[in-house]
Design a protein that fits this description.
Layout (H helix, E strand, L loop, with lengths): L2 E7 L8 E7 L8 H14 L22 E2 L2 E2 L21 E5 L8 E3 L2 E2 L2 H10 L10 H6 L4 H11 L6 H5 L6 H12 L8 H14 L10 H5 L7 H16 L1
Parallel strand pairs: 1-5
Antiparallel strand pairs: 1-2, 3-4, 3-5, 6-7
Helix pairs in contact: 2-6, 2-7, 4-6, 6-7, 6-9, 7-9
Length: 248
């Protein structure tokens, strides 16, 4: 395939960025999107030009670091996949593809397509943990009966990889889906009850401090989430937060 790539280039967080156009040829449909970018960068390096910086790690849809805005959609046109799982057969010969970093005040651009998502880490650190000993002494953890529906819902929430697609998809750049997933995976289990009140208060407070917006209720976050995290988690977050405030 022959493609035209319009890619956001930005030298640093403090410099102005712009879209630059790169023609590329010889792209196979079985290539992943990141492999296509590897081909582009190899060509740029061979010509003595600066390669395009982008985040990646596992390339197995697990880590979420490959997050890119592709033709205006987080992770591109496919559903339930990360950028590294997106294949070039999703595009046609002659297509023009716009590639940008995730756009959010709380996700400042570091360089080119790489953004700083450490805001998610700080939200997690503010309350996303349990004090119950579940490591090296798992007898107590495994001896507590848990309703299967609750266990399944907790595992579904824990599938969140923190890629930030929910933020990029939201008009308000809200982190409600991410935060609610992290709250839900503990709120549904008995091991998470010890810090339940402090957890939701601290995580919501940190989310606001990071500059994320409020939920728009449009559901774009769930649609674009590569792991299909449900909006039900946001409803659970609201209930947990209300309950925590009533308790004082």
């Amino acid at each position: 395939m022959k493609l035209t790539l319009k890619i956001w280039r930005q030298d640093s967080a403090n410099s102005k960025g712009k879209m630059q156009t790169y023609p590329i040829d010889g792209i196979e449909g079985d290539m992943s999107f990141l492999e296509m970018l590897d081909v582009l960068n190899e060509g740029l390096i061979n010509k003595g030009e600066t390669p395009v910086e982008f985040d990646h790690d596992c390339r197995e849809g697990i880590c979420g670091s490959c997050s890119l805005q592709i033709n205006g959609e987080p992770h591109g046109p496919d559903r339930m996949v990360t950028t590294c799982q997106l294949h070039m057969r999703s595009f046609k010969d002659g297509d023009t593809i716009a590639i940008e970093p995730f756009r959010a005040k709380a996700f400042p651009v570091i360089k080119d397509l790489i953004v700083d998502r450490s805001a998610f880490d700080r939200i997690q650190q503010s309350g996303g943990y349990v004090s119950v000993n579940t490591s090296g002494n798992t007898l107590d953890a495994n001896a507590i009966p848990i309703n299967k529906q609750d266990a399944d819902s907790a595992f579904a929430a824990a599938a969140c990889i923190g890629c930030g697609a929910c933020v990029a998809a939201c008009k308000n750049a809200s982190a409600m889906l991410f935060t609610s997933a992290k709250v839900s995976q503990y709120a549904l289990l008995p091991q998470g009850q010890v810090e339940a009140t402090e957890r939701v208060e601290n995580m919501v407070r940190q989310m606001d401090l990071e500059g994320f917006g409020n939920c728009t209720n449009t559901g774009a976050c769930e649609i674009e989430c590569p792991k299909g995290i449900s909006l039900e988690n946001i409803a659970r977050l609201n209930r947990e937060f209300l309950s925590a405030n009533i308790k004082g």
